[in-house]
Fold this sequence. Notes:
Elements: E1 2-8, E2 17-19, E3 21-23, E4 35-43, E5 46-51, E6 63-68, E7 78-84, E8 91-97, E9 107-110, E10 117-121, H1 124-134, E11 138-142, E12 192-196, H2 197-204, E13 222-225, E14 236-241, E15 244-253, E16 260-261, E17 266-267, H3 275-280, E18 294-301, E19 309-311, E20 316-321, H4 333-339
Parallel strand pairs: 12-13
Antiparallel strand pairs: 1-2, 1-13, 3-19, 4-5, 4-11, 6-7, 7-8, 9-10, 10-11, 12-18, 14-15, 14-20, 15-18, 16-17
Amino acid sequence: MKVSELYIYPIKSLRGIALSRSEITRLGFPFDRRFMLYKVLNKDDGVELKKMQVSSFTEMCLFHTDLEYPDENDPSGKLFVTHHEPSNGSKETIEMPLIPNTKGLEVLDVDLHYSPTKAYNMGAHYNKWFSKWFGFEVLFVHLGDYRRQVLFPGIANDQPNQSWMSTITSYIPTFGFGKLEDKLTFSDCAPYLIVSKTSLQSVSSRLPDGEEMDITKFRPNIIVEGADQEWEEDFWGEVSMGDATFKLVHNCGRCASINIDYDTGKPAVGETGTVLKKLMKDRRVDPGAKWSPIFGRYAYLDPASDAQIIEIGDDVVVTKTNSERTRFGMYSQRMHAKRLPTLRADWPGLSTN
Length: 353
């Protein structure tokens, strides 16, 4: 098997960026999901920030992203966001620093899947631009040096990272950003999502002749090609890619986001708008996410592989298989009681008993 495609999503739920090569860290690919959008809800008792994800705010897929990596001349780099208006084909782009200077920015309390953190309000200039397109008040935030807690068992530990980013491509310099534990950015519950093109063929086979499922709707980080069987990745426990090793810990349950028409920013019509329903028939295979069909595996980087490089064409070898499928969110009541005593023994909001 080979690495076929690589993606990052600098702003959660907006369009991703295809890479040919990247450093890998225990926090994920550099610059992956470091920004996020929140809807401002003004209530009698104050302001509530509602997380924005493409499953609920389908127009998020109309925003395309691109970047320029930091270098000696521009240590902050650049992130470009372009809104594509489906009604007339017009485009409008806003530019921002890829690594913002957070000094003086308002610090907010934010939450994603019951794993709260703090983040920086990027300010009125960006908030107004996004709010204009969504038609309601939006806050655009950057994670900065803050992190989210991993709620899976046995993942978070104190083994340090050696660096955050060294070489992404041959012309990008090294950046050291200190030591990190296994924490999360604005990725849902793991730094990496690995999917198989062989299994994608099974999804596409459910559509009319000539139609293929767009794999980017599954929002993967790493796409593998050449697996012998559809859905064999359900049982992968560990894989090596080049010189790196990934621990595949849980399945990824799917939601209505895979039914969206990325050209219109609305739920798709016809058969492409029923992909989730089609997968419900035989892919609800994880009792920890029993209402969701499974496609892909959440993965963490082995600490010994920190700061390695991955690129398209790297060999992929399954080094450990599980005898049965993992159960999403499963961990001991003892571990959970210590960490989140008022919640159930699962990842709250994401898993089912």
